[in-house]
């Protein structure tokens, strides 16, 4: 995943760093005053995520594209390292503390939504977290992707009731915890250590296949980038995986559930639609606590303040790296693919319980089988999009 910036060769850019620091301070104060200390900490965790995502260029989109199109699996293997490191702590936390996991059922809507998300992210140019950190890094194109990600998300909430009525294998009810017979939580059924063993075996088998495949295709393994500076970047994928594992674990400890991103996009879209006179509160999705979220301050929503923190953290990283330079001349292809990809990702994320962070990473670190189903369908969608883009010459 690349950032639409042209590097400046010498010192850090002061203005983006100052703006990012001030933004983080304001966010911490607002979140803390409105929702308490945990909310303020959530802003800082988001800031760390944005800083790490930018410096490590840790995106899911490029890694999936490269293993399919180029036969290079280094990005995929470091994704698996991130998952394994997080699960080593998250599984015992979920088993023995009040932290809850995302244990959600597999359904027709979830499968189609994850396919749609994977397809869309190759056109949009980033995943859920990738969209945010590239926006913070100064990409004007990704601002368009984010806008239509939000629009697609709120449209998804409009139609979610219809998708949930498709009986595969039965109507879906969003739930946390095991209870639906088509949900399967590995931690509850195998224990935290048994679940971790199974997960590591599965990830290890896929990683070994990627090593075999890359050597067969290229004769050697691509060497990962090395860390040049922890302040100015770039970081190695190892440093990125460790930092993001810390983000995931801190989120579980402080917030009490796994890291998520795209719920906030749906909320922002619903708030905007409601302000424009659209009666979203009559949609079945926006009931109970979700209706309250529309009425409450956005700073009461933990996912939102973490997302704001991601953007600010990435802005600081871009300034320190001397790479914050937005490009305002975009081609029609760049604009149209950003719109198309954003809409697909937003709509798909609502059907599939989230994006690469909330559904894929969040599902796997919770020991939920739906995380594996999401990954398979999103990878298929991503691969199909790569083929289509190649044929279209974009």
If you had to describe this structure to a student in words, what would you say it looks like?
By secondary structure, the chain is mainly α. It has one domain (14-182, 192-392). 69% of the residues lie in helices and 0% in strands. The radius of gyration is 20 Å and the shape is globular.
Task: List descriptors.
394 residues; disordered N terminus; 15 helices
Question: Helices and strands in order, then pairings?
Answer:
Blueprint: H1 14-35, H2 37-56, H3 60-69, H4 74-96, H5 108-124, H6 128-136, H7 140-164, H8 186-218, H9 237-254, H10 263-275, H11 289-295, H12 302-320, H13 332-351, H14 356-365, H15 369-392
Helix pairs in contact: 1-2, 1-12, 2-6, 2-9, 2-12, 3-4, 3-15, 4-8, 4-9, 5-13, 5-15, 6-7, 6-12, 7-10, 7-13, 10-11, 14-15
Q: Runs with pLDDT <50, length 5+?
A: 1-10, 169-181
Q: Tell me the radius of gyration.
A: 20 Å
Total tally of structural domains: 1
Task: Tell me how many strands there are.
Answer: 0
Residue share in helix: 55-70%
**What's the mean pLDDT score?**
90
H/E series: HHHHHHHHHHHHHHH
Coarse morphology: globular
Beta fraction: under 5%
């Amino acid at each position: 995943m690349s950032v639409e910036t042209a590097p400046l060769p010498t010192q850090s850019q002061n203005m983006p760093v100052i703006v990012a620091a001030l933004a983080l301070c304001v966010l911490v104060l607002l979140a803390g005053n409105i929702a308490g200390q945990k909310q303020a900490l959530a802003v800082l965790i988001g800031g760390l995520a944005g800083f790490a995502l930018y410096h490590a260029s840790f995106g899911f989109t490029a890694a999936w594209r490269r293993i399919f199109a180029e036969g290079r699996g280094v990005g995929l293997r470091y994704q698996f390292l991130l998952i394994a490191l997080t699960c080593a702590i998250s599984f015992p936390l979920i088993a023995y503390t009040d932290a809850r996991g995302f244990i959600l059922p597999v359904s027709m809507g979830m499968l189609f939504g994850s396919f749609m998300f994977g397809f869309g992210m190759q056109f949009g140019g980033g995943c859920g977290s990738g969209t945010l950190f590239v926006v913070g890094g100064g990409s004007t194109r990704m601002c368009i992707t984010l806008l239509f990600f939000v629009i697609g998300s709120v449209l998804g909430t409009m139609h979610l009731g219809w998708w949930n009525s498709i009986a595969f294998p039965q109507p879906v009810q969003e739930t946390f915890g095991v209870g639906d017979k088509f949900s399967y939580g590995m931690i509850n059924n195998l224990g935290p250590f048994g679940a971790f063993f199974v997960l590591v075996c599965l990830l290890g088998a896929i990683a070994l296949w990627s090593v075999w495949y890359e050597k067969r295709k290229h004769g050697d393994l691509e060497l990962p980038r090395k860390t040049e500076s922890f302040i100015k970047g770039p970081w190695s994928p190892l440093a990125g995986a460790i930092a993001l594992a810390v983000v995931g674990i801190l989120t579980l400890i402080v917030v009490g559930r796994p890291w998520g991103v795209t719920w906030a996009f749906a909320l922002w879209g619903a708030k905007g639609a409601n302000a424009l006179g659209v009666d979203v509160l009559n949609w079945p999705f926006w009931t109970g606590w979700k209706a309250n979220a529309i009425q409450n301050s956005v700073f009461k929503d933990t996912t939102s303040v973490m997302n704001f923190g991601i953007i600010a953290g990435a802005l600081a990283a871009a300034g320190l790296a001397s790479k914050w330079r937005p490009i305002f001349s975009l081609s029609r292809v760049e604009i149209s693919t950003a719109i198309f990809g954003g809409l697909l990702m937003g709509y798909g994320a609502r059907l599939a319980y989230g994006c690469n962070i909330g559904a894929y990473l969040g599902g796997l670190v919770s020991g939920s089988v739906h995380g594996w189903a999401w990954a398979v369908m999103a990878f298929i969608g991503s691969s199909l999009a790569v083929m289509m883009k190649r044929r279209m010459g974009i």
